[in-house]
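Page 42, continued from yesterday. The earlier attempt failed because a stray header line got pasted into the input along with the sequence. Redoing it now with the clean sequence only.
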Amino acid sequence: MFANHPRLFITTICIAATVIIACNKTDDTVNPTTDPVAEVLNLPTPTFNYANIIQPAYLTAPNIVAQINTPAGNPITNDGATLGRVLFYDKNLSINNTISCASCHNQANSFSDPATLSVGFNGGFTGRNSMSLIDAKYYPNGRFFWDQRAATLENQVLIPVQDMVEMGMTLPQLETKLRGLAYYPVLFNRAFGDNNITSNRIALALSQFIRSIVSFQSKYDAGRQTFPAVPAPPPNAPFPNFTVQENRGKEIFLNPANACAACHGSETFTAPQERNNGLDMVTTDRGFGAVTSNVGNDGLFKVTTLRNVELTAPYMHDGRFATLEQVVEHYSSGVRNHPNLSPQLRLPNGQPRLLNLSVQDKAALVAFLKTLTDLTVLTDTKYSNPFK
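This time it went through. Structure tokens are written below.
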């Protein structure tokens, strides 16, 4: 038959050859497959280093290590923090896919919000200003939020997700939603050894990422490294890389008589517990007092780190101060004699401790605070948005 129809013979051979070639092609060509992680995320291989960040010796001294609030059951791992990073930036954690953790804790603003109050998924406003997350792991009592209502960071990270102003989800809704996103089973398996997605694991991963955000590359750190790790240099020891004004501000800040370092002590510039810093004569926000149902705690709030404070305006729990100059003026002349004013800000006669600084010294103190600015944290890719 083919002898009588040469064109048909040639065509048949070509068709058969095409079929054979097609059958021998790789599965990726015939049945295209995609990496569900690489499809939507920019994640490096191997992962970024979150677990063993090398810091200056003075930040690994025993007194600093004692401040760390990481629980024994949730150490930072590279895969866990990587998952946490994805969760932190994922707007799928909100009911209408409009808000992520990063919406209120922006890397460019040292993981704070430049707005006085943050905006939630439906346009509502949060009750307080969003504080910086820098060095969150160094708050010794481990409590979170301005009023410290969360006993641990692991408790804290899921509360905004469930808040009806902020993100508007329930935990069952969150788990179901994330199970439907192809990249999460892979990331959970890497972090925890299997792809089971639970709210507890979400909390663990988010906490690992947040605790990994540490600052140690500021102008202050460069000067501090010219001295032995321990003991810390005396307040009047000039840093060689500081200006005269910055060294004067450092001396004012560290002078025990001025109480600045009493509430923002050690190299992490944090406090061991909540304080009332005399913002008001009478209580306008109960803060920790509402959490404990104790009027003796009214007006007490969490003390955040001063690292990168230049970048975290507005200041205080209610964002009342727009500039560092206004903050310094408060401590120089404006501390109010609230009944629960912290002892560090009260004189032996019971009156508020006022710094009464000169114009030059107020400027010097602001200049010193700006030496705590670490721009590398603002641009470090491992803390940035991983979504394509």
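Notes: The domain at 57-214 is CATH 1.10.760.10 (Cytochrome Bc1 Complex; Chain D, domain 2).
Reminder to self: strip header lines before submitting.
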